[in-house]
Amino acid sequence: MFTPQLRHSTSAFVMQSETGCITQFPAIAYCKVTFDAASYRDALFSEYGIPFPSVLDKTVVKRRAEYLAARYAAGQLLQNAGCDGHVGTSSGREPVWPAGWCGSLSHTSGHAIAIIAPRNAGLTPGIDIEMFDAKTMRETAEMFTSPEERRLLAACGLAYETALLILFSAKESLFKALYPEVKCFFGFEAARICRIDTSVHSITLELTQPLTPERRQGCQFTGLYLIAENHVITLIA
Predict the structure, then answer these.
(1) What local confidence, expressed as pLDDT, does residue 50 receive?
(2) Domain ranges for the chain
(3) How many Å separate Cα 91 from the centre of its chain?
(4) What is the pLDDT of residue 34?
(5) What topology does CATH give the domain 128-236?
(6) pLDDT per residue as tens digits for the range 187-208
(7) For the chain, is the Cβ count within 10 Å smaller at the N or the C terminus?
(8) SS3 state at 5
Protein backbone atom coordinates (compact mmCIF):
# COMPACT_ATOMS: atom_id res chain seq x y z
CA MET A 1 0.00 0.00 0.00
CA PHE A 2 2.82 2.43 0.87
CA THR A 3 6.00 3.00 -1.12
CA PRO A 4 8.25 4.97 1.27
CA GLN A 5 10.71 7.47 -0.13
CA LEU A 6 12.03 9.30 2.92
CA ARG A 7 12.07 8.61 6.66
CA HIS A 8 13.44 10.94 9.30
CA SER A 9 13.15 12.05 12.89
CA THR A 10 12.40 15.70 13.50
CA SER A 11 11.67 16.71 17.09
CA ALA A 12 10.44 15.63 20.48
CA PHE A 13 6.87 16.15 19.25
CA VAL A 14 7.10 14.66 15.74
CA MET A 15 9.27 11.71 16.61
CA GLN A 16 9.23 10.05 13.18
CA SER A 17 8.02 11.07 9.74
CA GLU A 18 7.71 8.96 6.59
CA THR A 19 6.77 10.25 3.15
CA GLY A 20 6.17 8.42 -0.09
CA CYS A 21 3.39 7.47 -2.49
CA ILE A 22 0.52 5.02 -2.49
CA THR A 23 1.77 2.01 -4.42
CA GLN A 24 -1.51 1.40 -6.26
CA PHE A 25 -2.16 5.13 -6.82
CA PRO A 26 1.19 6.82 -7.55
CA ALA A 27 -0.50 10.22 -7.90
CA ILE A 28 -1.33 10.12 -4.19
CA ALA A 29 1.47 11.17 -1.85
CA TYR A 30 1.35 10.32 1.84
CA CYS A 31 3.04 11.37 5.04
CA LYS A 32 2.80 9.29 8.21
CA VAL A 33 4.00 10.69 11.51
CA THR A 34 4.45 9.31 14.99
CA PHE A 35 4.02 12.04 17.58
CA ASP A 36 4.23 12.49 21.33
CA ALA A 37 1.27 14.43 22.71
CA ALA A 38 3.14 14.94 25.99
CA SER A 39 5.67 17.10 24.10
CA TYR A 40 3.00 19.34 22.57
CA ARG A 41 3.25 23.13 23.01
CA ASP A 42 1.04 25.79 21.43
CA ALA A 43 4.21 27.49 20.18
CA LEU A 44 4.76 24.56 17.82
CA PHE A 45 2.07 25.95 15.52
CA SER A 46 4.23 29.01 14.88
CA GLU A 47 7.40 26.95 14.65
CA TYR A 48 5.83 24.75 11.96
CA GLY A 49 4.20 27.68 10.17
CA ILE A 50 0.70 26.32 10.75
CA PRO A 51 -2.13 28.76 11.62
CA PHE A 52 -3.79 28.11 14.97
CA PRO A 53 -7.53 27.88 14.20
CA SER A 54 -10.20 29.35 16.44
CA VAL A 55 -11.92 25.96 16.62
CA LEU A 56 -9.11 24.84 18.93
CA ASP A 57 -9.48 27.71 21.39
CA LYS A 58 -11.43 25.67 23.95
CA THR A 59 -10.08 22.21 23.16
CA VAL A 60 -7.87 20.01 25.32
CA VAL A 61 -4.16 19.44 24.66
CA LYS A 62 -4.79 15.99 23.15
CA ARG A 63 -7.03 17.46 20.46
CA ARG A 64 -4.56 20.26 19.69
CA ALA A 65 -1.71 17.77 19.40
CA GLU A 66 -3.67 15.55 17.00
CA TYR A 67 -4.70 18.50 14.86
CA LEU A 68 -1.13 19.79 14.69
CA ALA A 69 0.34 16.38 13.84
CA ALA A 70 -2.07 15.84 10.94
CA ARG A 71 -1.54 19.38 9.59
CA TYR A 72 2.22 18.95 9.95
CA ALA A 73 2.00 15.81 7.79
CA ALA A 74 -0.10 17.63 5.19
CA GLY A 75 2.31 20.56 5.23
CA GLN A 76 5.24 18.29 4.45
CA LEU A 77 3.42 16.94 1.41
CA LEU A 78 2.40 20.35 0.11
CA GLN A 79 5.92 21.66 0.60
CA ASN A 80 7.36 18.66 -1.25
CA ALA A 81 4.92 19.38 -4.10
CA GLY A 82 6.05 23.00 -4.33
CA CYS A 83 2.88 24.44 -2.81
CA ASP A 84 3.32 27.13 -0.16
CA GLY A 85 -0.30 26.94 1.00
CA HIS A 86 -1.64 25.16 4.05
CA VAL A 87 -4.68 23.08 4.96
CA GLY A 88 -7.36 25.29 6.47
CA THR A 89 -10.45 24.35 8.45
CA SER A 90 -14.04 25.03 7.40
CA SER A 91 -16.83 26.10 9.73
CA GLY A 92 -17.83 22.44 9.81
CA ARG A 93 -14.25 21.50 10.77
CA GLU A 94 -13.48 19.79 7.46
CA PRO A 95 -10.03 20.28 5.90
CA VAL A 96 -9.84 23.01 3.24
CA TRP A 97 -7.11 22.24 0.69
CA PRO A 98 -5.14 24.77 -1.36
CA ALA A 99 -6.37 25.37 -4.90
CA GLY A 100 -5.42 22.55 -7.22
CA TRP A 101 -5.13 19.95 -4.48
CA CYS A 102 -7.34 17.47 -2.67
CA GLY A 103 -6.56 15.14 0.17
CA SER A 104 -7.50 13.60 3.47
CA LEU A 105 -6.28 13.58 7.06
CA SER A 106 -6.60 11.17 9.97
CA HIS A 107 -5.14 10.76 13.43
CA THR A 108 -5.34 8.47 16.41
CA SER A 109 -3.32 7.91 19.57
CA GLY A 110 0.26 8.89 18.68
CA HIS A 111 -0.21 8.47 14.92
CA ALA A 112 -1.31 10.83 12.15
CA ILE A 113 -1.44 10.54 8.38
CA ALA A 114 -2.12 12.83 5.45
CA ILE A 115 -2.56 12.14 1.75
CA ILE A 116 -2.73 14.59 -1.15
CA ALA A 117 -3.29 14.37 -4.89
CA PRO A 118 -3.56 16.90 -7.71
CA ARG A 119 -7.22 17.76 -8.18
CA ASN A 120 -6.93 17.04 -11.90
CA ALA A 121 -5.87 13.44 -11.18
CA GLY A 122 -9.56 12.51 -10.96
CA LEU A 123 -9.20 10.87 -7.54
CA THR A 124 -11.39 11.23 -4.45
CA PRO A 125 -8.96 10.34 -1.67
CA GLY A 126 -10.12 9.39 1.81
CA ILE A 127 -7.93 7.89 4.52
CA ASP A 128 -8.47 6.69 8.07
CA ILE A 129 -6.29 5.29 10.83
CA GLU A 130 -7.69 3.43 13.85
CA MET A 131 -6.10 1.79 16.87
CA PHE A 132 -6.85 -1.84 17.71
CA ASP A 133 -9.42 -2.30 20.48
CA ALA A 134 -11.00 -5.73 20.21
CA LYS A 135 -13.41 -5.18 23.11
CA THR A 136 -14.79 -1.97 21.62
CA MET A 137 -15.21 -3.59 18.23
CA ARG A 138 -17.24 -6.44 19.67
CA GLU A 139 -19.39 -4.12 21.77
CA THR A 140 -20.13 -1.62 19.00
CA ALA A 141 -20.32 -3.85 15.92
CA GLU A 142 -24.09 -3.48 15.60
CA MET A 143 -23.71 0.31 15.37
CA PHE A 144 -21.85 0.20 12.05
CA THR A 145 -22.59 -3.22 10.52
CA SER A 146 -25.61 -5.24 9.47
CA PRO A 147 -26.05 -8.96 10.29
CA GLU A 148 -25.12 -9.79 6.68
CA GLU A 149 -21.91 -7.76 6.95
CA ARG A 150 -20.98 -9.45 10.22
CA ARG A 151 -21.46 -12.89 8.65
CA LEU A 152 -19.20 -11.93 5.73
CA LEU A 153 -16.51 -10.62 8.07
CA ALA A 154 -16.67 -13.70 10.29
CA ALA A 155 -15.96 -15.88 7.25
CA CYS A 156 -13.23 -13.76 5.62
CA GLY A 157 -10.26 -15.48 7.26
CA LEU A 158 -9.13 -12.59 9.44
CA ALA A 159 -9.58 -12.34 13.19
CA TYR A 160 -13.18 -11.18 13.58
CA GLU A 161 -12.35 -8.05 15.59
CA THR A 162 -9.66 -7.08 13.07
CA ALA A 163 -12.12 -7.49 10.20
CA LEU A 164 -14.63 -5.33 12.07
CA LEU A 165 -12.04 -2.61 12.55
CA ILE A 166 -11.11 -2.69 8.85
CA LEU A 167 -14.75 -2.23 7.87
CA PHE A 168 -15.31 0.54 10.41
CA SER A 169 -12.22 2.34 9.13
CA ALA A 170 -13.13 1.79 5.47
CA LYS A 171 -16.55 3.38 6.02
CA GLU A 172 -14.81 6.33 7.67
CA SER A 173 -12.48 6.61 4.67
CA LEU A 174 -15.44 6.46 2.28
CA PHE A 175 -17.14 9.32 4.12
CA LYS A 176 -13.99 11.43 3.93
CA ALA A 177 -13.62 10.64 0.23
CA LEU A 178 -17.21 11.51 -0.70
CA TYR A 179 -18.13 14.33 1.67
CA PRO A 180 -16.37 17.10 -0.31
CA GLU A 181 -18.48 16.02 -3.30
CA VAL A 182 -21.87 15.21 -1.77
CA LYS A 183 -21.76 17.99 0.87
CA CYS A 184 -23.97 16.11 3.30
CA PHE A 185 -23.46 13.82 6.26
CA PHE A 186 -24.31 10.15 5.86
CA GLY A 187 -24.12 7.30 8.32
CA PHE A 188 -22.54 3.88 8.38
CA GLU A 189 -25.74 2.40 6.95
CA ALA A 190 -25.21 4.31 3.68
CA ALA A 191 -22.64 1.71 2.54
CA ARG A 192 -22.19 -2.02 2.95
CA ILE A 193 -19.27 -4.34 2.42
CA CYS A 194 -19.47 -6.48 -0.71
CA ARG A 195 -16.11 -8.18 -0.58
CA ILE A 196 -12.84 -8.31 1.30
CA ASP A 197 -9.83 -9.84 -0.44
CA THR A 198 -7.17 -10.73 2.08
CA SER A 199 -4.70 -11.76 -0.65
CA VAL A 200 -4.36 -8.18 -1.93
CA HIS A 201 -5.62 -6.34 1.18
CA SER A 202 -8.59 -4.78 -0.56
CA ILE A 203 -12.16 -4.10 0.54
CA THR A 204 -15.14 -3.22 -1.66
CA LEU A 205 -18.03 -1.11 -0.40
CA GLU A 206 -21.36 -0.44 -2.09
CA LEU A 207 -23.73 2.46 -1.52
CA THR A 208 -27.08 1.35 -0.12
CA GLN A 209 -28.72 4.71 -0.86
CA PRO A 210 -28.26 7.51 -3.39
CA LEU A 211 -26.09 10.41 -2.25
CA THR A 212 -26.09 12.48 -5.45
CA PRO A 213 -27.36 11.85 -9.00
CA GLU A 214 -23.87 10.55 -9.82
CA ARG A 215 -23.32 8.63 -6.57
CA ARG A 216 -26.30 6.34 -6.91
CA GLN A 217 -27.37 3.36 -4.87
CA GLY A 218 -25.26 0.40 -5.99
CA CYS A 219 -22.12 2.43 -6.76
CA GLN A 220 -19.07 0.48 -5.63
CA PHE A 221 -15.73 1.65 -4.25
CA THR A 222 -12.72 -0.59 -3.78
CA GLY A 223 -10.28 0.48 -1.12
CA LEU A 224 -7.08 -0.76 0.48
CA TYR A 225 -6.22 -1.69 4.02
CA LEU A 226 -3.01 -2.13 5.96
CA ILE A 227 -2.78 -4.03 9.25
CA ALA A 228 0.06 -2.66 11.37
CA GLU A 229 1.28 -3.66 14.81
CA ASN A 230 -1.29 -1.70 16.80
CA HIS A 231 -3.46 0.02 14.21
CA VAL A 232 -5.23 -0.29 10.87
CA ILE A 233 -5.11 2.14 7.96
CA THR A 234 -7.66 2.19 5.15
CA LEU A 235 -7.77 4.22 1.96
CA ILE A 236 -10.48 4.91 -0.62
CA ALA A 237 -9.52 6.66 -3.84
Answers:
(1) 95
(2) 2-122, 128-236
(3) 20
(4) 97
(5) Ribosomal Protein L22; Chain A (3.90.470)
(6) 999 999 999 999 999 999 999 9
(7) N
(8) strand
